[in-house]
Design a protein that fits this description.
19% of the residues lie in helices and 37% in strands. The protein is α+β, with helices and mostly antiparallel strands. It has a six-stranded antiparallel β-sheet with strand order 10-14-13-12-11-15. Strands 1, 2, 5, 6 and 9 form a five-stranded antiparallel β-sheet that branches. A two-stranded antiparallel sheet has the order 3-4.
């Protein structure tokens, strides 16, 4: 699973485009995304419909799945300038490595698959947080062949609360998507 998430700056280069997992405290992830859009910097916030109580009435709203979480596609140099001059509240999500705090960097191919899986609105998908990820067992790496999730790779495993095994697309240590039930004929086992 270590290939899914890098715990270091990519090649120590300031000019490599990569996905940074970031935090926008006090539920300002949508504000941060708007500012990034104005600067033509790609970002992604996992969103889903949630039922929310407003003034005593239930409402179905399109909201961020995890509060404060935003993924930013930029170079290290660019994101440092953005943090310093335009969006000071934006913070790196980090992981400790030999006493140092290093930003969490998500590989491009893993992020692309995660975004593709999360943007299919007609399918029932469930998101798991980092805490819930720890409770998952190990599974078999698979690729889906056909259907709305065609080409997406993940882990085929049992998930608590589901009757059958599901394909889980994981951003290790950050977030995961549990896809709707997939026909076994559409799964290719990866080495």
């Amino acid at each position: 699973m270590s290939e899914l998430l890098s715990n270091r700056w990519p090649d120590n280069s300031d000019n490599d485009l990569c996905w940074f997992a970031m935090n926008a405290p006090f539920r300002r992830e949508l504000d941060a995304q708007k500012l990034l859009d104005e600067m033509s910097i790609e970002s992604f916030i996992p969103m889903a419909y949630k039922v929310i109580m407003r003034k005593g009435k239930k409402k179905r709203e399109w909201c961020p799945v995890v509060s404060n979480l935003i993924f930013v596609h930029a170079t290290r140099k660019c994101i440092q300038e953005v943090k310093t001059y335009r969006i000071p509240f934006l913070q790196y999500l980090t992981k400790s490595d030999e006493g140092r705090s290093l930003p969490l960097v998500v590989p491009n191919n893993q992020m692309e698959q995660f975004m593709r899986a999360s943007q299919i609105k007609n399918e029932k998908i469930v998101y798991l947080t980092a805490h819930e990820l720890d409770r998952l067992g190990t599974g078999v790496r698979v690729r889906i062949l056909g259907g709305p999730f065609d080409g997406i790779e993940g882990v085929f495993q049992r998930v608590q609360g589901c009757r059958s095994k599901r394909v889980v697309v994981v951003l290790q240590g950050i977030l995961a998507i549990v896809l709707s039930e997939i026909c076994l004929d559409l799964l290719e086992v990866l080495e």
